[in-house]
Amino acid sequence: MTRISSNGSNKKKEEVHVANGGLKQSAWSKALSSRAVWDDKDEFLDVVYWFRQIIAIILGVIWGIVPLKGFLGIAIFCMVNAGVLYVYFSSFQQVDEEEYGGTWELTKEGFMTSFALFLVVWIIFYTALHYD
């Protein structure tokens, strides 16, 4: 089934995917619904990756405002980041970890990128608020 854009142009047709008699859910709507069915493994890995980036930004801002310093801040970030994502994919989504290469593969998906983002946000906020 296709839908023609508002200007009626045939060049700008959008595919409307129909699965099992209904419209296909977006990745984010599936990400926020419990026990969603993930037909595409890469789609779920993308959601895990982007959730991790969101967590990194939020924790970086909080750590910069609080102000946390040093190894304690890094250690707490690592535990919270890994813990939240583990609870997300094992309890909320209840995916079979073995389909994605095991628990460790899902736990480390996008971790280093989120760690770098966390450090940048933490340093910027800490420096802006607490450095004379």
TrEMBL record:
Question: What protein family does this chain belong to?
Answer: Belongs to the EMC6 family.
Coiled-coil ranges from the UniProt annotation: none
This one is known as RAB5 interacting factor
Q: Which UniProt keywords apply?
A: Endoplasmic reticulum, Membrane, Transmembrane, Transmembrane helix
Q: Which GO terms describe its cellular component?
A: endoplasmic reticulum membrane; mitochondrion
Q: Which domain of life is it from?
A: Eukaryota
Q: Where in the cell is it found?
A: Endoplasmic reticulum membrane
Q: Does the keyword Endoplasmic reticulum apply?
A: yes
| InterPro entries from the UniProt entry | EMC6-like, RCAF1
Question: Which residue ranges run through the membrane?
Answer: 47-66, 71-90, 110-129
Q: Could you state one GO biological process linked to this protein? A: mitochondrial respirasome assembly
Stated membrane topology is: Multi-pass membrane protein
